[in-house]
Amino acid sequence: MGYRAVDVDSVEPEPDRPCECRKLSDPGELDAAAINRFRAAPGEQLPLAYHYHETQQEAFYVLDGTLAVETPDRTYEVPADDLFVVDPESPQRAYNPEDADAPVTVLAIGTPPAAGDAVAYDPDDE
Question: Region labeled Disordered — which residues (predicted)?
Answer without folding.
Answer: 1-24
